[in-house]
Write a structure and sequence with these properties.
Distance between the termini: 54 Å
Helix content: 40-55%
Structural class: mainly alpha
Radius of gyration: 24 Å
Oligomer: single chain
Largest sheet: 3 strands, antiparallel
Number of helices: 3
Strand content: 5-15%
Number of strands: 3
Strand order of the largest sheet: 1-2-3
Length: 152
């Protein structure tokens, strides 16, 4: 009877090991497919980038007293502006320009179209053409459903 009991434990451990190997294989399969299809950056890139840029813009506003002008753009986060309203107090809030998943620089405007008290960051989307249906905006993803709401 003891041998039967021990065999049950061994069989249970064996089944658990097999299940673990199958689960690991499935994780590897889906991770490989995701990376082959552009990874999660293409799915989560713009909302995550919008969040990073909005944080950097808010830090800029706290130092300078206002957001950068549309003419100064996102470059004002990297280099102190030399045109427009030049802030008396400025600190670098980003080290380099962020590009959308399709390799283009994000566009910036202040005031934003939907909310004039906040800046708007946009991407021309996969087609790279401004004003088409696939364009993405920080104002579209933030107020309605949260940063990632429109992507899940």
């Amino acid at each position: 009877m003891a041998k039967h009991y021990e065999r049950g434990i061994v069989d249970g451990v064996g089944n658990c090991a097999i299940a673990s190997v199958i689960a690991f294989g499935l994780v590897c399969y889906f991770a490989q497919r995701s990376l082959r299809n552009g990874g999660t950056h293409c799915r989560l890139g713009p909302p995550a980038d919008f969040a990073s840029l909005q944080t950097a813009l808010e830090m800029y506003r706290l130092d300078a007293g206002t957001f950068p002008t549309t003419g100064q753009g996102l470059k004002a986060l990297i280099e102190k502006p030399t045109t427009g309203s030049i802030p008396a107090k400025w600190s670098q809030t980003m080290t380099s320009e962020i590009h959308d998943p399709w390799g283009k620089a994000y566009c910036y405007r202040f005031p934003g179209l939907q909310n004039p008290s906040t800046p708007e960051v946009t991407s021309d989307g996969p087609d790279g053409v401004e004003g088409t249906a696939d364009d993405l905006s920080s104002e579209d993803s933030l107020p309605r459903r949260g940063w990632f709401g429109s992507f899940f």
